[in-house]
Amino acid sequence: MESKQHFFGKKSMIAMLAVLSAFPPLSTDLYLPALPHMMKILDASQSAVNLSLSLFLIFFALGILFWGPVSEKFGRKPVLLTGLVLYIIGSVGCALSTNVTMLILSRVLQAFGGGAAEAVATAMVKDMFTGRKRESVLALVISMVVVAPVVAPIFGAFIMKFMSWRVIFWFLAGFSSITFLLSTQLDETLKDRFEGNVLHSIGRLGVVLKNPGFSALLGVFSMAALPLMAFIAASAFIYINGFGMSEQQYGLYFGFNALGSLVGPLLFIRLSKWVHSRTIITASFFIITVSGIMLVFFGASSPNVFALTMLASTIGISMMRPPSANLLLSQQDGDTGSAASLINFTALFMGSIGMFLISLEADALISTLGIMQILVGVICGIAWLIIKNRSFIRS
């Protein structure tokens, strides 16, 4: 550990980083079981309710893009606290929504504020850790964050069984309030602040993008989020409407699929002791491709086949997240906040595109998911094989 905290120990600091990184899955997965019910209560279409998901991701991504560079000037802690206040206000607005328009607008505010937590968490990892240790910490944080998508839909389904969907957003308001209080105890991790104005700080995004190694890897790795987020958006409709499950059954199946995101990073930690990280990334693209083929031909045959196929795909996608994130961060000596913002922004932006595309194919959700996985696995896998050993890619 390169930088110590006075309030947080080594393990509790990693846990805190995981909490900050858990805002995207909690904010999306917790209310997935409620989506079909919310359509009826708010008298809205499936596409309108899904808009609260896709727009959340877009503005969360824009928030990341804004807060990361700004944290280079004002520091990680002030930016984090400001973003959490906006997230709390947005969560309360969602809970009080009386129509889908109010829900979507509140989700936009919630998303923009939540972007600060994601940007700061990634930047703090590089502020505090280096080399192989940073790669291990990223894997641990990612594996801990997975608890959120595993538990969230189950908890959301439990709430739906006994309480209103509004309680889900009251819970998010409470969770973010506790996170705010804990964040007040963080020590600033940024050593050297950017001396220019805010606009110049945001302009550092362009400087990072001019780095050919960073940009090339960013284009390859960000695409993996497209089929994963498409699955998240379509999962409730596949399991509940397609396979005729209850909201509680859906929560269990989704939790099973989300376990792949836990297995992936932990499997990477184990494999990386004997296998090079770049080989693991290559294998991950192969797994995504094969899973896509299986989905197209067999995914609709039963919920168990679909769940097992998606589990393999989720393992493949999540297994390459720690080494890909570390490889991207290693391309930059400075501008950590901007680099972290671009990493998270592109992943969420591609995820929102996946959510939008899957909403256009309501009658062929499973086969569309499979095609997405095949395209990402083949195209990105080939691109990765072409660039991974080029001289402009740092080890």
From TrEMBL:
RNA-binding among keywords: no
Subcellular location, record wording: Cell membrane
Membrane topology term: Multi-pass membrane protein
Record-level GO BP terms: xenobiotic detoxification by transmembrane export across the plasma membrane
Residue stretches making up the Major facilitator superfamily (MFS) profile domain: 13-395
Pfam families: MFS_1
Similarity comment text for this entry: Belongs to the major facilitator superfamily. Bcr/CmlA family.
Protein name listed in UniProt: MFS transporter, DHA1 family, bicyclomycin/chloramphenicol resistance protein
